[in-house]
């Protein structure tokens, strides 16, 4: 039966039956955990179901699946890194100040959204924003470090603040 005769859902089902075991193994090698590999394999096929465009012309399913899965692995590692940093910071706080598990999850999701927003910024904008907000440097010092004018630093900061406002409105 040709791909053209299959619906998108049927094609994803066929991809799943033909390649799920392979994808699980591929992910298991990268993650070292069968449970996380199974979760990300499922997420890969869910992504296909949500965005079936182009499936009819798919010529190398394993390459396509591994590309999607690789992106999910990177997101998984980023989330683990952010969560680990937050939990380390939280461990340094007195227990009376510890948030509930629900509050922790909201905080981690917020940190991930901030991380994603920062990654979308141009590198100099991101660096200027972090130098100002985390290191407390003045615009003049930031300008020297980035080898730009102080006026450019102000533009970078305005751009970063705009992204922060857009994030806050989501």
Automatic annotation (TrEMBL):
Keywords: Sigma factor, Transcription, Transcription regulation. One of its GO terms (biological process) is DNA-templated transcription initiation. GO terms for molecular function: DNA binding; sigma factor activity. The keyword Transcription regulation applies. It comes from the Bacteria. Residues 15-81 form the RNA polymerase sigma-70 region domain. The keyword Zinc does not apply. Residues 112-164 form the RNA polymerase sigma factor 70 region 4 type domain. InterPro entries: RNA_pol_sigma-70-like, RNA_pol_sigma-70_dom, RNA_pol_sigma70_r2, RNA_pol_sigma70_r4_t2, RNA_pol_sigma_r2, RNA_pol_sigma_r3/r4-like, WH-like_DNA-bd_sf. Belongs to the sigma-70 factor family. ECF subfamily. This is RNA polymerase sigma-70 factor, ECF subfamily. It comes from Pseudomonas segetis. The lineage of its organism: Bacteria, Pseudomonadati, Pseudomonadota, Gammaproteobacteria, Pseudomonadales.
